[in-house]
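User: quick one, fold this
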Amino acid sequence: MEYELILLAAGQGKRMQLKKNKIWLEIGGKPLFMHSLALFLADERCKQIILVCREEEQSELRSVLKRDMKTYSDRITLVSGGAERQWSVGCGLDHCSGERPILIHDGARPFLDKVVVERILICLTQSDAVICGVPAKDTIKRVKQGVVVETPDRSELWQVQTPQGFQPNVIKLAHKIAKKEKYLGTDDASLVEYIGKRVEMVEGSYHNIKLTTPDDIVIAKAILKARRGDRA
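Assistant:
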């Protein structure tokens, strides 16, 4: 199945305690976003990659992509993002053809496995929306003002990851309605849920972490070492 990708790289480094966009953080000798970018560039079914980034970083991104001939491709389009993640995705959707399913992935998740992508694409052949995730390992408590008010059934709780996949008409409609009604969701799937559409879940990977805080760097290095062996 042919598809298009929106790769989000317009974040900041506040929670990572950086003075720059965390996508420039290097893991295994490459910036975070380059790991995922390489995976999708290697997939010939991925016909277009919308790289959503900060406007002031586009020049630097182009230089990096052109310098790395294995990474540079005319399939990549740079698009300026918005102040919120949801708005950045909306900017990316404006540049999608509308003819193919769309995957949306966080550039700060460098350890995506192609097996997970395959699961999403297979499910998308019969679904409007597909997300990936892993069962929650810990007991989760719902807390208000420092007091536990509920302990949800852990067997029903999943930690949601990206990529998330959608039929183009569904995700574009979801974003259009969310914008009109000023609804800000926690992820793209929540916008699809908001308009009453069914969202399927497939198994992700516990390695598919999002690097958000300094502690995540330690975990990322351990994952990389496990993948590469003692060479990392």
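User: anything notable?
Assistant: Residues 62 and 68 are 10 Å apart (CA to CA).
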